[in-house]
Every structure is written in C-alpha cells, then in structure tokens.
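FAQ
Q: What does a multi-component entry look like?
A: The components come first, one per line:
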Amino acid sequence: MVNLNIDFNGLKLKNPILTASGTFGYGTEFSDFIDLNRLGGFIVKGTTLHHREGNPYPRMAETASGMLNAVGLQNKGVEVFCKSIYPEIKDYNTNILVNVSGSVVEDYVSTAEMINELENIPAIELNISCPNVKEGGMAFGTSCASAEEVVKAVRKVYKKHLMVKLSPNVTDIVSIAKSVELQGADSVSLVNTFLGMAIDAKTRKPKLSTVTGGLSGPAIKPIALRMVWQVAKAVNIPVCGLGGIMNADDVIEFMLAGASCVQIGTANFIEPDITIKILEGIEHYCRKFGVKDINDLIGALDS
Amino acid sequence: MVNLNIDFNGLKLKNPILTASGTFGYGTEFSDFIDLNRLGGFIVKGTTLHHREGNPYPRMAETASGMLNAVGLQNKGVEVFCKSIYPEIKDYNTNILVNVSGSVVEDYVSTAEMINELENIPAIELNISCPNVKEGGMAFGTSCASAEEVVKAVRKVYKKHLMVKLSPNVTDIVSIAKSVELQGADSVSLVNTFLGMAIDAKTRKPKLSTVTGGLSGPAIKPIALRMVWQVAKAVNIPVCGLGGIMNADDVIEFMLAGASCVQIGTANFIEPDITIKILEGIEHYCRKFGVKDINDLIGALDS
Amino acid sequence: MKKYIHYFEVIYNTQLNTDYYLLKLFTEEDLPAIFPAQFVEVRIDGAPNTFLRRPISIHDVNYEKNTITLLIRIAGEGTAILSSIKSGEYLNLIYPLGNSFTMPDSDRILLIGGGCGVAPMLYAAKYFMQFGITPTFLLGYRNKESILRPEKFAKYGNVFYTTEDGSFGEKGNVLNHSLLNNEEISFEKIYACGPEPMLKALSDLAISRKIECEVSLENLMACGIGACLCCVQNTDQGHKCVCTEGPVFNVKNLIW
Amino acid sequence: MKKYIHYFEVIYNTQLNTDYYLLKLFTEEDLPAIFPAQFVEVRIDGAPNTFLRRPISIHDVNYEKNTITLLIRIAGEGTAILSSIKSGEYLNLIYPLGNSFTMPDSDRILLIGGGCGVAPMLYAAKYFMQFGITPTFLLGYRNKESILRPEKFAKYGNVFYTTEDGSFGEKGNVLNHSLLNNEEISFEKIYACGPEPMLKALSDLAISRKIECEVSLENLMACGIGACLCCVQNTDQGHKCVCTEGPVFNVKNLIW
Ligand SMILES: Cc1cc2nc3c(=O)[nH]c(=O)nc-3n(C[C@H](O)[C@H](O)[C@H](O)COP(=O)(O)OP(=O)(O)OC[C@H]3O[C@@H](n4cnc5c(N)ncnc54)[C@H](O)[C@@H]3O)c2cc1C
Ligand SMILES: Cc1cc2nc3c(=O)[nH]c(=O)nc-3n(C[C@H](O)[C@H](O)[C@H](O)COP(=O)(O)OP(=O)(O)OC[C@H]3O[C@@H](n4cnc5c(N)ncnc54)[C@H](O)[C@@H]3O)c2cc1C
Ligand SMILES: Cc1cc2nc3c(=O)[nH]c(=O)nc-3n(C[C@H](O)[C@H](O)[C@H](O)COP(=O)(O)O)c2cc1C
Ligand SMILES: Cc1cc2nc3c(=O)[nH]c(=O)nc-3n(C[C@H](O)[C@H](O)[C@H](O)COP(=O)(O)O)c2cc1C
Ligand code: FES
Ligand code: FES
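Then the predicted structure of the entire assembly, as tokens:
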C-alpha cells in the first residue's frame, strides 16, 4: 500500500490532488463524473464580498495548448455562498477551500471573516493574483508591499489555514512568497494565470471582451514548475503547485520540484473525471517506482 | 501590389519578417531552403566579447507547444565573428543584425564597438534578456536601473540602429521599455524566452543540465502578444514583436497589437522555409482583406 | 439530468456537401434520455490548437440502435478534424448537455433553422412527434445545393424553404418567408436555431407578434458543464451559462 | 551537401516486433546522394507534445525506386504516431542530414549495432559494398525475438549476434562477443551505433587496442540543421553539433 496522506501544514489531505478555483465550479458540477470524496480537496470559485456579474462575453479564447479566460470573478457574493451553496456541499468528506477574492483590502477581510465561521471549510485560498478584474486582484500579488498588506489584514481575522495564491506575472515570485510567509500565511499556492491576449486576424478584434485575460493549461506548465521549484526552496511553509497539470507525471514533476500538493485546473474542462484518473496514475507510479510514501517525493528532484 | 516596405526608425525593411537570434544560426544554415535575400532581415546568434562554450548538454526539452533551451550563448566571440563569419554573410541583400550579449556592461560596450565598424551591419539587437547565462544577461533586463545602465553605455559607442531585446520575466515590461527608450534605444524587440523548467518524472532529474532554461514557441504567444500591445502603446520608438509566431496570421496579430516588424524563432526549427511561407501568407492576407500598405496594420487593433 | 462520458464508434461519416458532414455514432453503453436541442462535447484529439472539446448539437437519436447522429459544418481546425474521421474510429463525448426546448401546448409550432442551425431541429421534431405533435419546418439556406437532408426532414413535418439566391423555396432569408408574414397563419410557438442576426430579428418579430419563441444559442465554451462560466449570455436575470442554463432561451429573457 | 524538404508517401509500414516498425517511403523528387549514418528529421503532425521533428537514421535507400526505409523503435509519443501511420499517408522529411561514416581502407571492417543502433548499419554495409567492401556485422539484441531483419543483413555481410539471454548467437552484449575478444581476428576499423554505455565501453576497447573506431551518436535535437546548438557533444575541440558535425565521431575525439 502506498501512503498518499499529506499533512499540509495542519490541513490533512487524503492525497495531494485538489482542484483549482474557477475550474471546478462548486464541485457538484463534477459529481456525475467522479466521487468528490476521493479528492484531497477542492477549491470553489473565486468568492467576493458582493455579487459580481463578471466580464461581458466573449470570455474565452483557445490558444496553443492552453486557453485564455476573462471570467472576471462572476459569483453571487459571500452571503449567498454561506447561505445557499455551503449547506449543499459541506458534507462532502474532503477538504473544501474557498477562494477569496476582492478589490480592496476591507473586502478580503470581510469575506474571510464570514468564511471563518463555516465549520466545514478548513482553509481559504487568498486570491491576490486574478488578472481579470480591473480594480485589483492581481495588483495585490505583484508587489511585496501590497501582498503583505492584504495577507496581514486577513490573517488577523482568519483563524484557520490561510493559503495565499501567487501571481506568476512578476519579476521575482520568491520575494512575494517570502513576504506572505512573513505575514503568517500557512501555505502558498502557485501559479494563477498569466496575463495574455488573443486577436482575431480577420476581424482585427481582440478575442476577449476585456482584451487581455488569463492564460492557463499545459502551455504554462514549464514556467509554473520553475516558479514552484524556486519558491519551495525559499520558504518554510508548504507549496501547492499548479499550472497546466494534465496527468499523473505532471503531478509527480510538481512534487519533485517541491510542491506538497497540487491543483488540477483547466484539465477538468477536457476530462471531467481527470482528477480520479490522475489519482490512480499516481498510485500506479508509486507502485512502479517503489515509492511507499508520497511525501518522499516532495522536493526530491535529483539535481 | 501590396507595399510591404517598412521604415523601422531608419532601418529600411523590405518586409516585416526577420528571424530571431539563436534560432537562425548565421543565416547560411538556411540557404538550402530559402533565399535569404527575400527576408526583411535576419539576426545572427548571440555574440559575446569572448568565446563561450555554452552550457553542458542536455540543452533542450520539448514542452506542450513549445521548447526549453539552455544553450547559454555558445559562440566564438566577436573577433571571430568579425574576421571569419561577417565576410561570409555580409553581401546578402537584406538587413543583418547582430545580437549582442554579455555579462558585464564593459563587455556589451566592447562588443558593440567592434560591430559598429562593420559596414554591412546596420543595427544590433542588445540582448539584456538571456535567461541562460548565470552571470547576467537577463539580470540586466529585469530592472529599469540595470537596463538603463547598459543601454546608456552602449548608446555612447554604437552609432547605428540600436534595438534592445526585452525580457518577459518581469512584472512591468512597459517601464523597462520606457527606460531603454529614454536612454536612446532606436527600437525594442520583445519577447525573449520565459524562464521555465522540465523534469523527467521517471529519473527524477531535471531535463536540462542547467535545471532552468528559456521557453519559446506557440505556448508563449498569448503572453508575448499582450506585452507587445502594452509596450507599443507606451513608447514612441517602434516595436519588433516575437514569441511563438508560426504562421502569417500570427504575424498579422502581432502587427495589429502594435509591432512594426516581427521575428520568427522556434518555427524555423520545424519548417526551415517557414519565413518565406509566412511572407507569402502575409501577401495573401493583404490581398484578401484589401490591405494596400502593410504599415496600415501596425497597431490597428479594433478594440 | 446525469451526464456521461462515453466513447462512440463512428459508424459512418458522409460528406453532404462542401462544408457539411453527417456522423453516425454508436455506443455500447445505454443511451440516456436525450431532449431536443441538447448537445454533446466532442474531444478533438491530435492538434495543439484544438485543446478544448467542441460543442455539437444532437441531430438525431436512435435508441434501438444506440446511435446518435451529428451534423458537422467545417468552421475551423476542430470541425475539419471531425470531418475527416473514418468509420471504425472512436470519438469521446460528454453528453447529454444543456437544457432543451420546452413542450408546446399544441402542434401549431414552427421549427426554424438557418444553415448549421437546422442540426437540432430534426431531433426536436422527432421528439415532439412522440407526443403527437407534427411541426412545421422553415429552413433557410444559401442556395439549393446547400440544402441538408430534405427527405429526412420531410418525414417529420411540413417543410418550407428559403434560399438566399432563390434557387429553391422562397428567395431571401427565413424572416422574409411568407409563412411568417401571413397574418392568417398563426403559430403558438416558434423554436429556432441559427446565426445570431437571424435569431435577433426573429426575436423582435416574435415579441411584436406575441408569439412564444425559444432560441438555441451558440457561445464559446470551455467546459460545457457549467464549471468555467466562460459561455455566458446576458439575460434579464444577469449572466446565464449557455451550456447549462441554455442553449435554449426564451427570447423574452434575452438581452442581446 | 544540399538538404531538402520533401514529402514522402508511405509505401508500407510493417510491424517487426513489439517495439519496432519498418517504414518504406517514396518520393517523387529525385533522391540526393545519401551517405552511411545520415539521418532524416521527420515532422510529426497531430500532437501538442511532438512539436519538434524527430531524428531517424536512414536504414536503407533504393535510388531506382526513389525510396528510403526507416526502422522505428517506439520510444514515446512521436515514434508511436509514426508507428501507426498507414500506407498512402504522407510524411514530411528534411534530409539528408549529418556527416557520415568515413571510407575504410580495407574490408576488415566491423559494423556493430546495438538495439535500435542497427538501423544505420544496413545502409552503411550496402554503401560500402559498392566499393567492393564486405563488412562483418556484430549485432546485439535482448533476445531472439527482438532480432531485426536477419536475412536482409545477411545479404550484405557476415553476421554475428549476441543476445542478452543467450537465446541466439553468443550470450551477453556485443562487447562480450568472441569476435572482439579474439586476438587472432583483427579489424582495421569499427563502426558502431547503439546505447551510450555500449559505445563508451567500445571506445575504451578500441582505443586500448588501437583500432580506428567511429560511432554514431544520439542527442536531443531541435533543428537538425546546425541552427540551434542544442545537440552538442563534448569533444577535444569543444562542443560539436551532433546534427551537422556528427552524428559520426571518431572515438579518439570524444570527451564522454
Ligand atoms: C450549443 C452548440 C451547439 C452547436 N451545434 C453545432 C452543430 O450541430 N454542428 C456544427 O457544425 N457546429 C455546431 N456548433 C458550433 C461548433 O461548436 C463550432 O463550429 C466549433 O466549435 C468550431 O470549432 P473549430 O475548431 O472547427 O473552429 P475554430 O477554429 O475553433 O473556430 C472557427 C471559427 O468559429 C468560431 N467559433 C468557434 N466555436 C464557436 C462556438 N461554440 N460558437 C460560435 N462560434 C464559434 C470561432 O470564433 C472562429 O471564428 C455548436 C455550438 C454550440 C455552442
Ligand atoms: C541521429 C539520430 C538517429 C536516430 N535514429 C533512429 C532510428 O533510426 N530509429 C529510431 O527509432 N530512433 C532513432 N533515433 C532516436 C529517436 O530520434 C528518438 O527515439 C525519438 O526522437 C523519440 O521521440 P518520441 O516522441 O517517440 O519520444 P519522446 O517522448 O520525445 O521521448 C521518449 C524518451 O526518449 C528520449 N529521447 C528522445 N529523443 C531522443 C534522442 N534524439 N536521443 C536520445 N534519446 C531521446 C527522451 O528523453 C525520453 O526519455 C535517432 C536519434 C538521433 C539523434
Ligand atoms: C475559467 C477559469 C476561471 C478561473 N477562476 C479563478 C478564480 O476565480 N480564482 C482563482 O484564484 N483562480 C482562478 N483561475 C485560475 C486557476 O485556478 C489556475 O490557477 C490556473 O488556471 C492555472 O492552472 P491550470 O493551468 O491547471 O488551469 C481560473 C482559471 C480558469 C481557466
Ligand atoms: C535555441 C534557442 C537559442 C536562442 N538564443 C538566443 C540568443 O542567443 N540571443 C537572444 O537574444 N535570444 C535567443 N533566443 C530567443 C529567441 O531569439 C526568441 O526570443 C524566443 O525563442 C521567442 O521566440 P519564438 O517563440 O518565436 O522562438 C534563443 C531561442 C532558442 C529557442
Ligand atoms: S462552457 Fe463552461 S460554464 Fe459553460
Ligand atoms: S539540432 Fe539544432 S544544432 Fe543540432
């Protein structure tokens, strides 16, 4: 038997497979295809203090081995989440994380405070890296000072596991990671999407209503992997790695680079049952290569 | 007849198609496949003051819709270039640019000085963005201060067209572009490769001898296009766009985003005659959409 | 309604005209109940630019033979790959997706399809027919050559045509057809699918004439199952997902 | 030597055993002169992870029929796609690439191939035979079942085998074969291709016995034409490109 349990700085994961915010709805969208209870956890949609309609369509463009999105944090706001959505999902036997987004520090704080009250939500993922909202999001994640400010404020009110999601659109992701660690983050997740753009040569128009959007999918994997490797070496809190993961080998690579767990994002769109296939692939890998405990892979890159 | 001529801040291009440094050797490698005289120009390998053996192998890894390289500026040094290589290529009827790289400011300056003497080299491309050399390269391109320093120093000795090649591994490429403009760059080219990494899950080893390397190819196109769009809006010097261009539509997209000319990089490896196919594709596009002058496309994004 | 991921074997792939192909697909699994205007998400293997699945309407269903039929118009790389698939090969489908046309109260219903928008109308008619409802079809094409499966449509209702060049049926587009412009003929409900400008014009007409009208919309989709929120349509209740809250919308709720 | 980009039609694709396929390819263009150990760069269409071409040795050439033959071992996605290509389909090749084995002075030459490394040896022998040279082959395989095209090799020289399990020829790897360990038999020159550990051991042996030895190396290639400098091998003259200054190196110049 292979041990897949991971103690992610207090968060008990039955395996390293989580799903990425904004790509997995509220989990229930996938219950026709997989048993959600088998996941290490899932992270629900970006949730903001107030209801948001998101950006106008078109919100999506396909690119080589990837896609751009400009959803813009469409969600019904944290109150509706707590009242109507939480009760529907709270009894899954897995870790449910809420991805908390905002445009001003106070919004992050108020949202986190409300989520803090939800018994079956053991952690939030603080999204300081959304490239798709004008007012902020990514802006918080692209300088140490602003990242510190928001993490510090949220840390005061949020008592459970605080994961901070980093933006890859920076010169030096390591120093941002260190800043949020200093302010008491329990873990970091990386990466969010890369700011990109697509144009229709025929119509001469941008393919997204917002011109730019967030790039995800296998195209970004090599950059994401490099960032995880750099950050994992530099901080003492654990790292959740993501960006373009499509199969079990990809997960192993992120773990070897230093991630203690991973998130599956865009891949869910193509194979709604990919998480479970990957989980089985990981078990297969461990058996094949004699790995008895998945923890042995974390940071085990032979370089 | 479609006009494809472009006056790129004094550099006369017969069409917007150049080739990217490090992907086109010294041009002659491609003479079996295309007539080099038909190009708008070509940019030879990264050239340094002294001979460089480059990095150990493996230097290459394939990724989804892209590749990582860690060549590390292998070249025989500027003296050998001037004495042995330049005479072999100088009579092509196209613009030959030398990509000038270095690890300290003085090396850039000395190299640029020597190239300045070569009659048939109308421009250099200052590479402040190579991610594959430990000592510098990219470090110059990731802060405004260091970018300014090297451009200022080279500007003093280099009298012809000075193109500066920017790194995409930054939070704010626009401010770097503005800095180099301020120091007298005649144009900017972007992007160089993204710092990435690949791991072999089976052997647990990095796929590159240097662990990290530069990501190129269609995977990066959406990010490169966004950066070109941002920079072209912000500076008054012209922009040469590159990153994942594989076909004529890609070129049109870069031009609509604001590039006055483009470079074809990794695509040359897969189709050594791609430049000419793209050139013909652009003519076809212009005829189809009634574009009489290619200059009309520059920055003509309808957003 | 439960969604499935099944492999289907290609029984045949027939070219209907320059741009259109008919794919008959068989699965060993039991087909779930499928409703009119529902669609599948097809995985397109083998090209870096067709990373995401492609949404395609369910054109026909045969529960006895466990087959579904798709009508494919070549629009780009993904549909071009589909058009070249050969019998015996397999396609991976997620289905059945989306809501569906609602049941009418009478058989005074008109099914309007423009171009590729005729695809869901065949199965819609077949479905309604189970309930004793015989619809009228109004199908718009570019010209006579581009008309798709006329005998097949004729089986399930009265068919009227428009062609842009007048080479068959009435000249013009479906909006110009006398059926719609004859105050004598009244329809309880119109169901339509086709290019957005056509649907918009139809919506105006239906609203002004107080005819119920449901349209099946297209949108760019990443997931097809309501998870990504990429495929939104603006409505009087805000952004709605075309993949789960559509593709069918009552025109009175749409904000175009 | 001029290089070409040509389309080739697949004449046949035969599976030789679990991992190996033989592809015969025809082009309407005139074949240029091809030298032993040269290779092609095949474009692999239809998968995002096989973005770059794949280098494959030229296994055989028929100038009358304008065909070349490739021996493919499934190593990953790209070679798997090649293994499933069907006759009548087309492959895009850049060729002929690389330097080549140099001419020997006598026919006391030994061609050593290990596993997939046997690929270039067939054409090498055929090429040398034009000059009246009949080589000796020493081919190493895992077991009897994995032996490739024995009759074909037998046409061009004397063939000796090793198998790891001893099921055919001598047991062990090529280095263990009595041919190489019999002081009576002397070869003027050895040509070899195969896994790196085998080539390294052979190199030591050749150097210590003062036998000329040329090896054909593999390396990861992006362009195949000397433009990218990705495929370097360390030598006593510094980094050399395997694609243009190789794949053939004299072992005395190699720094492994
Ligand atoms: C609910 C639904 C049902 C559909 N039913 C059918 C059907 O029965 N038969 C059929 O042939 N097609 C149908 N389509 C359209 C089909 O999904 C697109 O033509 C296909 O995704 C294009 O893929 P491609 O790779 O060939 O083209 P691409 O290269 O991706 O695109 C080619 C062009 O088509 C546009 N396009 C791509 N996807 C869509 C889309 N989903 N909606 C609108 N425009 C798009 C692109 O912007 C581009 O201009 C349906 C779409 C939806 C949303
Ligand atoms: C000059 C030359 C001649 C060759 N001749 C033949 C031949 O005649 N027949 C044949 O079957 N193969 C030959 N090869 C090897 C062949 O190029 C690789 O097996 C192929 O590129 C693998 O591609 P893939 O997509 O199937 O595997 P990938 O998924 O790309 O790789 C699978 C595994 O093979 C390794 N690999 C990939 N490419 C190479 C390479 N070029 N050298 C060494 N290891 C590699 C990878 O690191 C990985 O571990 C030759 C290689 C060279 C350089
Ligand atoms: C459609 C879509 C919506 C997303 N929404 C969010 C979000 O609300 N909050 C967030 O932190 N990240 C969001 N992301 C980013 C993903 O969680 C993830 O960081 C990114 O897609 C990279 O992983 P991937 O390549 O595996 O998809 C979204 C991504 C996509 C594609
Ligand atoms: C193998 C290789 C070597 C490169 N060498 C250089 C170099 O010497 N100098 C430089 O400025 N850029 C170098 N580059 C970067 C390219 O010029 C180009 O900026 C990058 O590849 C992005 O373009 P592409 O996606 O079209 O390849 C190199 C790229 C590759 C793939
Ligand atoms: S396509 Fe993802 S929500 Fe509709
Ligand atoms: S593969 Fe590019 S130089 Fe050899």
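Q: Is there any commentary attached?
A: Sometimes. For this entry: Residues 256 and 302 of chain A are 8 Å apart (CA to CA).
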